[in-house]
Specification:
Helix content is 12%, strand content 56%. With 586 residues, it is mainly beta.
Length: 586
């Protein structure tokens, strides 16, 4: 070998050795020192990087042991960060990384009472040049990454702003991205799996693009505990969560190119179990199970379409308080924030959302109602209640069908079915009742008349047609029966009116206009009627004087009391084996 060739080979070997020494030994040490100096200069908390490795031949960079935060309470950190740079980054015009791997990263996201985020206070960042930022090009930095892996990530979230602090932890987060790029119309395949020791799992799979920002895929949340974020709800409405677990899944399509376009398809939600109570411990609602499926949401169209709802065994309580307000209404009103002054109305009202409910089934519901307005509280149990609803449209595109079948009291039953419209409010319903105990009306009768309703059962088969609500326009037709009616005069402790069976056929009532009854049939009726010496009757004795009502204003130029009397027509009356007690002392 010639001396020149040997000299050239030796020079190349020396250069390679020098390059290797610079890359393996000198450059990592210098870079580690500079990195820690910069961390110390700009970090407001202790920050340190343990080790830095660089392979000058494969352009592989590895960072070890980054910790930012007080020892033992680090707010950001990782065990290892690996990146593999490609040489073609020099001539392709884009930074090209074959792989990026992040092992055991941890992040603490903490909001204090004032809403300040801990991450925003970790570094003292220099003031930015606003003019330079405004003049800077809007195109994103050109970047291509073949593979990104996040292994065993840890996220700790804590928010001290609610009245009850919110805290949750995901201690096993694994993310994988393939072919991530900021170049136009490039998309990356993504997989995310996150588990929480508090219960719950997140599975996210799909594609994501950065220029423009877009994403398509599926998201599933399994066995999530509502108690984790319930303090946000409780600070808005005073509802105490006793138990609540839900599972949610959906396919989504998000695009931010021109406007926020979001579509959700195949949305499915399951809630089981669920229970809430009032702050004083009163139960408000308990639900065994709720399933919502075949649902879609379109943000641009402002439309929610729910294909199927199935719900089982909801038990709820509601009461009308002595002041006439519902307890639920008062509960929400007590925490309602003060509303700001209304803004000036705009010429173009906001487009309303459309909600479509295609198939709804509620089964075995129980509703406990209480009315505390009367002196004696009235308690009514409604259930088991079954409800079917089909083709509901909140914009009233077409009437929806409704079917109701429920128990009322100990042995009563109510069934209703028909069509209902919302705008204007209208309905055509068939309503039937069986064994409705009329004694429920006693608390409403007692303030008006000294009468005890000892027994009475109502059956009916009616057609109800509602054509308006302002003013109320309604027609009721059909038949009604009242069995075993027995009323007692509480002044004399004697029977007042009673019968074994009453049947009204050919019944037609037009609200505010007339009442027609084709035939009245009475079996074994009894009535006691007395005329006193002063020509008053025993009926007058039973009536309880009522406080005078304030005078109503004159309407449309006529006296307030000049209202059209209700016309009543009875075609025939049949009495079978009747009796009466009559006396005239005048």
């Amino acid at each position: 070998m010639s001396k020149g060739l040997k000299r050239t080979a030796a020079t190349l070997v020396a250069l390679v050795a020098l390059y290797a020494m610079l890359g393996f030994l000198i450059l990592p040490g210098v870079a580690l020192r500079v990195a820690n100096q910069q961390l110390a200069a700009y970090s407001t908390v202790p920050a340190h990087l343990q080790r830095l490795e660089f392979n000058p031949f494969s352009l592989e960079l590895t960072l070890w042991g980054l910790k930012i935060g007080e020892p033992g309470a680090e707010q950001i950190g990782f065990e290892r960060l690996y990146a593999n740079l490609q040489v073609d980054s020099l001539w392709t015009g884009a930074l090209h990384l074959v792989a990026v791997e992040l092992d055991r990263p941890q992040t603490q996201v903490l909001f204090d009472k004032s809403g300040k985020l801990n991450l925003s206070a970790l570094f003292k960042l220099p003031a930015s040049d606003t003019a330079a930022v405004q003049d800077a090009p809007s195109e994103p930095f050109a970047l291509r990454i073949g593979s990104i892996k996040l292994v065993d990530g840890r996220l700790h979230f804590k928010d001290l702003r609610p009245s009850q602090p919110i805290e949750f932890l995901y201690d096993s987060m694994n993310l994988e991205l393939q072919n991530l790029s900021t170049l136009p119309d490039d998309h990356a395949d993504m997989t995310l799996v996150a588990n929480s020791p508090q219960g719950g799992r997140i599975d996210w799979r799909g594609r994501i693009g950065l220029s423009p920002v877009s994403s398509q895929g599926s998201l599933k949340v399994t066995d999530a505990q509502m108690s984790v974020w319930w303090p946000y709800v409780r600070d808005s409405v005073p509802l105490v969560l006793e138990k609540g677990v839900f599972t949610l899944s959906a396919d989504y399509n998000l695009n931010l190119a021109k406007q926020t376009e979001l579509k959700l398809d195949k949305v499915a939600l399951s809630v089981a179990p669920f229970a809430i109570a009032a702050p004083d411990g009163r139960p408000l609602a308990r639900l065994e199970r709720l399933d919502v499926s075949d649902t879609s949401v379109d943000l641009v169209k402002q439309q929610v379409s729910v294909g199927r709802i199935r719900s089982h065994k909801l038990e709820t309580w509601a009461a009308r308080e002595a002041d006439g307000q519902l307890d639920w209404q008062k509960l929400f009103a007590s925490s309602a924030p003060q509303q700001p002054a209304p803004k000036e109305p705009t010429n173009s009202p906001a487009k309303p959302w459309q909600v479509l409910l295609k198939d709804v089934q509620l089964r075995d519901y129980q509703v406990h109602l209480a009315d505390r307005v009367p002196t004696d509280e009235v308690a009514v149990n409604v259930g088991p209640l079954n409800l079917d609803l089909h083709d509901f449209d909140s914009l009233n595109g077409a009437p929806f069908t409704l079917k109701l079948d429920t128990g009322l009291g100990k042995q009563g039953r109510v069934q209703a079915s028909g069509e209902v419209s919302l705008a204007p409010v209208a309905a055509r319903m068939k309503v039937s009742t069986q064994d409705i105990d009329l004694r429920i009306a006693q608390a409403y009768i007692s303030p008006l008349i000294r009468l005890e309703l000892r027994s009475g059962m109502l059956d009916s088969d009616l057609d109800v047609q509602l054509t308006g609500t302002e003013p109320l326009a309604m027609t009721v037709s059909g038949r009604a029966e009242v069995d075993q009616l027995h009323t007692l005069d509480t002044l004399k402790e004697r029977d007042f009116v009673k019968w074994q069976h009453l049947t009204l056929t050919g019944l037609e009532y037009r609200h505010g206009d007339r009442l027609d009854i084709e035939r009245v049939q009475l079996q074994q009726p009894y009535a006691r009627f007395m005329i006193n010496e002063d020509r008053t009757t025993n009926i007058d004795d039973l009536l309880i004087p009522q406080p005078a009502q304030p005078a109503e204003p004159v309407r449309a130029g006529k006296p307030a009391d000049a209202e059209t009397p209700l016309g009543i027509r009875i075609g025939a009356v049949d009495i079978d084996n009747g009796s009466a007690n009559f006396a005239d002392f005048s």
